[in-house]
């Protein structure tokens, strides 16, 4: 690049610092939003990564009969550090009459350097409090214990000990309950000694931290050889990670959509900003060409200048993304985004920026080299409508402004689109928000009629299978109880099983939300989620053959239901369709509650009666991260709209520089001139925002349904934003836009207007 | 006449034609112009508005394409050149001065003057020296760091002249250089043009003011795109410049 080109680029950047900063900011905003979203997604679907890093976890856990020599293990090739050995013992947790197996593990009051549990609530073990234990958080939730909760454990010798929960912790060394059993409780050495005095009935747990996680299996083999027959069980980080991983495709699809939408908006903003700048610079570019700049040089300069701004934005965005991860999300996210998605975001945005800049740069390069050539003079005459408007004494400023808005068709169109697209995306974002609200307010409409699930548990129900149902029905807030069973079904031609759920009977079916076809009315009929229909490649009305526990079963799929679980790969049949051996006794009872009842309160009441009750996770809870992203996205999109608007005002002012003198000469006051200019921009704003909002609410439900279908839940979940949401958004957008248009208009109206160009 | 005794002419056109297409109708602007400008010559092109004089000078500098005919610059045929070849030719051999100065508004006076030298590959040091010399000659040294917008019209046109001369071009093309100036600034700019002409600079200047054209060695008059008069101006008359000198005789 030539010195002359460089000098021109720097001079131009200096001359329009604010505009350049806005471009950088817009790109940085998009990149930051994308990185934050991707980080949250990665962390949300793979919580192991953060837990393991924060807790400095051990890659391998050895369960041995006797405590191995830590020094010998540390000396093994590839092992960098050793956690433990800790003594561990099995016990039974008793709470409210129901028993759950639990693994007790001793830990010191001082947290170790390797394999450190992360305390989420309450505090860590205290040497002065021998009754205090810390529970693994997912386990504590499942058994309904919180900080301060009391329970007892029964050791293998039958003695009962009363303990108190002093804290809840998470660990990257233990998977989540119930995928990973038994649940874990950390205790002091003395407490463990009391519960299990016999050394012979306890085991030793030792963690190994490796230099290279890929060496895991090799080190496991070496250790087993080294400890010669002592090793009873080994768990590795891979198993822990697998037990924690969530396959949340819906979240992924939503985020991807936001990402693409954000990129499109960014491309539009940059193309608009560059295009507007090039348009206002045509005279300068012509001068440069008359001095001997070639077309290629002009294109290169424009590409370099505007591309550099974009790249600076990307760099700033990557930095901001990191900072947000480190500071703003320090509590939720520990590990920054891994490099592959980060690189994809950076390169993707760079590509979008360059493509968006290229077209205006190319057009700039084609500018004819005659600087005096007028830039396609705005033409137009007063239409009949305008004459009529003047005749009925509408303020002339309004009429002139309205006329100005459309004299240059292409920029008017670009401005309208530049505002309509961010507004449309904002509306779609609001639609997502409304959908989440609907999930929460009416879970029965998204396939979650039951808020609570009662499991018969081990103690009282075996004798009398119907008892939990009766107990539950006795509660005033419980409207209906549906016995149910979930089994794995083998499908011919599939290498894996699918979930078959049998809840409710033919005569008393579970209230599924059927969105296509009909509910089952007979034995041998079934309804399914979108995911299953896609997986088996069947349609409503088709018959399908499955094997459940060795018993073949042929069902006809008569309807599609919204299925928030298992990516929609669930087949729902009436309980009486299953063979009695599979159906009886029911594994659980789904409880439908009275509208407005508090699931928490009902659960507490039922637990008080000795039932094992768990609360169904609302899909909206899992998607709550989307709300943060929607807010961030709205902010970024507003920024993009602002950038578009500033470009529009700049181009508008340039077009009207000559008119202003004429208008003033005609006797318009500065206020009227200002009103003319604001009307000119404002009309486009109103049209753009209105069109964007209308298009957004029109497509949002359909688009969310599309995402729903792609994620297996199935179409039928999408909601358009409510008017109460949309109206303030539209008014805010228009109001802010008018304010922004007012500032340059005010300045222009007051400035002394030159009569000659330059 | 300060015409160089030998070598090809600085500029030559053969039957040059320019036809604009306006709304599908052909509008001839230049209709078969044969013009020969020798080295060191100062030619004024006169004519009423719309006579094609600006179009002619734009074509001579490659800013506009010709419809037919030939353009020779320094013995080389130029009308067949591509757009970028024209650009390179302009950097090396042609300087332009426009009616509305056309300084790059974002750049300082110094940058504006250095731009052509830098563009043609001169080192920043050489470009600066040349700029200092030119601005010194044109009495603008103290304005070097100003933005062009803060200068008076006359000063701006002097900067434009300095910029046009930065690469010591073969030909200086001036399109109504005084059209936007008051009489004092007009006099200043004309004095400068005369000065560079005496140093051997070939100049082709478009003007519709007879008084301005009087400065040239030769006046070519265009009417409706054709040369209707081409004659030398008596050297004696050129010395006497002043407000009283308004009666011109042409054709």
Q: Any descriptors?
A:
heterodimer; A: 758 residues; alpha+beta; 4 domains; 6-stranded mixed barrel; 6-stranded mixed beta barrel; 23 helices; B: 251 residues; alpha/beta; Rossmann fold; 6-stranded mixed beta sheet; 4-stranded antiparallel beta sheet; 10 strands; 33% helix; globular; disordered N terminus; ATP hydrolysis activity (chain B); ATP binding (chain B); Macrolide ABC transporter ATP-binding protein (chain B); transmembrane transporter activity (chain B)
Provide an overview of this structure:
- The complex is a heterodimer of chains A (758) and B (251).
- The radius of gyration of chain A is 33 Å and the shape is globular.
- In chain A, strands 2-3-8-5-7-6 form a 6-stranded mixed β-barrel.
- Chain A contains 23 helices and 20 strands.
- Chain A has 4 domains: 1-46 and 248-376, no CATH class; 52-244, no CATH class; 387-442 and 618-758, no CATH class; 449-617, no CATH class.
- Residues 373-378 and 458-463 of chain A have low confidence and may be disordered.
- Chain A is an alpha+beta fold.
- With 251 residues, chain B is α/β, with parallel strands linked by helices.
- Chain B has a single domain, classed as Rossmann fold (3-Layer(aba) Sandwich).
- Helix content of chain B is 33%, strand content 26%.
- Chain B has 8 helices and 10 strands.
- The longest helix of chain B has 16 residues, at 183-198.
- Chain B is globular and about 50 Å long.
- In chain B, 49% of the residues are buried.
- Classes of the chains: A alpha+beta (758), B alpha/beta (251).
- The interface between A and B is large, with 31 and 41 residues.
- Chain A: Pfam families: FtsX (PF02687).
- Chain A: InterPro entries: ABC3_permease_C, Macrolide_Exporter_MacB.
- Chain A: Belongs to the ABC-4 integral membrane protein family.
